[in-house]
Amino acid sequence: MTLTRFIGQMQLPPHYLCCKEEMTPCPHSEAEQLVADLEKRDHPVSYLCFEDEGHFFVRTENNRTAYTETATFLTKWLQAKR
Q: Rounded to two decimals, what is the model's pTM?
């Protein structure tokens, strides 16, 4: 993945990755590699992957989980900036 080459050279904000395992244009393996690279550098990262989704979140429970986790991540890191 191209991004992983540049991670060590950038000052990055905390990352939140939410993916779908069945997403073919951007395989979840690339997201997992990015998460692994960020974690190696002790960079704050939250990762959420849904095994039973494709291009869009269609299952109500997955939507609920994704929005809840997104709100939790944003609340944590935006409050830390104050």
A: 0.71
